[in-house]
Amino acid sequence: MERKEVSKSVLKRLPSYLAYLKTIPEDASPYISATAMANALGMGEVQVRKDLALVSDGGRPKIGYLREGLIEDISQFLGYDNTTDAILVGAGKLGQALLGYSGFEAYGLNILAAFDTNPKADKTVDGKPIIPVERMESFCRTNKVLMGIITVPSEHAQEVCDRMIACGIKAIWNFAPVHLDVPGNILVQNENMATSLAVLSMHLQAQIKEKK
Amino acid sequence: MERKEVSKSVLKRLPSYLAYLKTIPEDASPYISATAMANALGMGEVQVRKDLALVSDGGRPKIGYLREGLIEDISQFLGYDNTTDAILVGAGKLGQALLGYSGFEAYGLNILAAFDTNPKADKTVDGKPIIPVERMESFCRTNKVLMGIITVPSEHAQEVCDRMIACGIKAIWNFAPVHLDVPGNILVQNENMATSLAVLSMHLQAQIKEKK
Q1: Stated pTM of the model
Q2: Terminus of chain A with fewer CB atoms < 10 Å: N or C?
Q3: What is the DSSP string of A36-52?
């Protein structure tokens, strides 16, 4: 199927569809309809139908999609089939946690190495090296790395970001709770856990207030 | 200052302001204007001005805000001053990483313990215990826990979510890439790393295509 441009909001929903499809037991019907998925996920039927039509042409009226085919189409669309090599800068607790997290492989992300200003000699996390940051440029060029993950403290994030771009990196996953300035051809995806915590904490405060 | 209801989009921006304010060197001017912040963060001046007025009444025409006061007002508004106790269910790699991540303390989050179906005896991560999931109910009641973090595989997430709600938990931070069904008074904040990766990977694919 030809690749279409899709909006960020579609991209946000596709992984949920995929996760849901994978939870259906193998002995269930091999077909699934957009309606059934919409009901299971508590989403609008029209939206689910439109989203699925964007990524798969396997849907048949009154029958739906072949489940395995749809899983494959969504995975392929999301790029989970193509492995992306990435580096990570900032081997503190969060950085080391991400470096050692095996769950990313299922989404096609392969973190090759972490860089830090002051790594302990020969330190590795699950076999992945932590390397002095001076060697980042040569490492990225040699390995043709296009994705970088930033897990340094906020005050160093822009500096690391600039350095990544100079290394040829085109997509940045930013875990520092700070805005990064980048040229137009570079994508920054912010993973702002501080925001999530603020939303949760705000909700709890409102609930506690209500009780009083 | 009286607490006002604010939108999620304001809540998303506040941590960036806070992070930026904290990066300003101590020997800089003690005052900061909304204009200066907007420029530094690459955001609209009107928006920054409105956001700050929502959380602080310390702004003065032509002078701006006293920096330290503004930091305090935003922190207080975001609830970073009140520590929230949380439990985490699913002590796999991601769960243990979050359990051991000390950075959350700055945002008022204190993870008391992790629960797992099959924890190794007496296992702790940075002094925090991993406890058999059977003891979750009594633990939550004893410690009056209101926040739960889900780091189990997608297929178990709804079950864990239901159990958390039965334990009195009101706010759920969900790291499983799956939609959770909850009653209206419960807030679910999804941390969907799979989505972030899809967005990044999509950008890289588009860039590679352009080059060809």
Answers
A1: 0.73
A2: C
A3: HHHHHHT--HHHHHHHH
